[in-house]
Specification:
The structure is a single chain. With 279 residues, this protein is an alpha+beta fold. The protein folds into 2 domains: 120 residues, Immunoglobulin-like (Sandwich); 82 residues, 2-Layer Sandwich (Alpha-Beta Plaits), CATH 3.30.70. It has 7 helices and 11 strands. A hairpin with a 7-residue loop joins β3 and β4. The chain starts with a helix and ends with a strand. 19% of the residues are buried.
């Protein structure tokens, strides 16, 4: 009898110890996730009062998502406007990211409101697959965070985000088109149709240089959607084209008097998104 009681007592102690260990491990796991796995939102430095820059970090292996929409809501029960809602889309993000989103004049209106002591701002991120994450802070606190932000989107992505490497495409920076040379005949000239720089080098070597294509000016040059940031256009005419990490832009002070170089850049573009109008 005593032996049975002792055995039962030992078994009870063992089971109790296992339960306590599991509880401690569960508590530690929950604490670890709370401290290190919880999603984190940061207001970043914006370029204007009509845009909103922010960074977001979350456990994307635990909660895979493709965020592409942000909503900012102001609730101000004692203000002239009790509620303002602004939303905008941005490029799909499936890992820790920083982004600046154009929000428009309504967002600027939120920043310029007074008497925000009793107001709250809710920031909601939505994903294409239905996941929603939100953060709420006092209106005054949000304004202070926006005005006092020092970290930029670039610094946030450099520290936390996945930076997609820029693909490199080798492109010939000078090209020419020549008539075929008949066999047995002495070539009398080459017609250069793309770049006058080749007229002297090739046409002269053929015996008699044909006149180079006449240069022209353009009134407008722009980039359609679909740029793959290959650097071909900037390599040909860097005074006009500037390639960033995500797209290509036309420099504000771009010279438009050398249409042949702009034409060459357009012909070298693998996705054919460079467009222009002749003057």
């Amino acid at each position: 009898m005593n032996t049975t009681l002792i055995a039962l007592a030992i078994a009870l102690l063992v089971v109790t110890g296992m339960v306590v260990q599991l509880g401690v491990l569960s508590l530690l796991s929950g604490s670890f996730f709370f401290l290190f796995g919880k999603s984190k939102f940061e207001v970043l430095k914006s370029s204007s009062d009509e845009s909103f820059a922010f960074g977001y970090r979350w456990n994307n292996s635990r909660e895979p998502a493709k965020f592409n929409h942000v909503v900012v809501r102001l609730f101000n029960p004692f203000g002239k406007k009790t509620q303002i809602t602004v939303s905008s889309d941005f490029a799909v993000q499936d890992s820790d990211f920083g982004v600046e989103v154009k929000m428009g004049p309504a967002f600027k209106e939120i920043l310029e409101l007074e008497n925000l002591d009793s107001s709250t701002v809710e920031i909601e991120l939505k994903s294409k697959d239905g996941l929603t994450q939100s953060r709420t802070m006092k209106g005054r606190k949000f304004i202070e965070a926006f005005r006092g932000a020092e970290n930029t989107v670039e610094s946030f992505n450099e520290k936390y985000g996945y930076v997609k490497p820029k693909m490199f495409y080798h492109q010939t920076t000078r090209s020419f088109i020549a008539d075929s040379i008949p066999q047995g005949d002495i070539p009398v000239g080459l017609r250069i149709s793309a770049n006058p720089q080749f007229a002297g080098e090739f046409a002269g070597a053929a015996g008699a240089g044909a006149p180079a294509q006449e240069n022209f000016a353009v009134s407008k040059v722009w980039i359609d959607e679909g740029c793959i940031v290959c650097n071909a256009c900037e390599g040909i005419y860097p005074e006009v084209f500037e390639v960033t990490d995500t797209n290509c832009i036309i420099r504000p002070d771009a010279p438009l008097d050398n249409g042949l170089l702009i034409l060459e850049a357009a012909e070298a573009c693998p996705t054919e998104v460079i467009k222009f109008n002749k003057a």
